[in-house]
Design brief:
125 residues; alpha+beta; 41% helix
């Protein structure tokens, strides 16, 4: 009779690690490497996600709206130009990243160049 330890060892040895685990796409790795530590700041009816300098990278107004507005210069344009993604691919990637990283589900990412108040390059105070 096999011990539990032997059975587990056999299962681990028999597991096909290369086919079961999909590699992370480089564009998702770029998002995670650069923007996985953003902090939410609530100002009025909006929630901004900001970097260490408190500069916003994206925001949403309310969950009922369903849209999340992504800063064009620091995220969207990089995915389009440097990684060669089209609009729909960029939108789907950002949606998946927001779900996995910030638990923001059910939002539709939209590129934007302007903030309702201030600038993408100024800290949210």
């Amino acid at each position: 009779m096999k011990s539990i330890k032997q059975i587990i060892r056999e299962e681990i040895n028999d597991f096909d690690w290369t086919s079961e685990i999909k590699p992370m796409k480089p564009e998702m790795k770029w998002l995670k490497d650069n923007f996985d530590n953003l902090k939410p700041i609530v100002k009025g009816i909006r929630t901004y996600y900001v970097d260490n300098e408190r500069k916003p990278l994206f925001y949403y107004q309310n969950e009922e709206n369903g849209d999340v507005y992504i800063g064009y210069d620091r995220i969207w344009s990089i995915l389009r130009k440097d990684f060669g993604l089209n609009y729909d691919e960029t939108q789907e990637l950002i949606k998946r990243w927001l779900e996995e990283t910030y638990n923001l589900r059910g939002f539709t990412p939209i590129q934007t160049w302007v903030l309702p108040v201030g600038s993408w390059n100024q800290p949210i105070i």
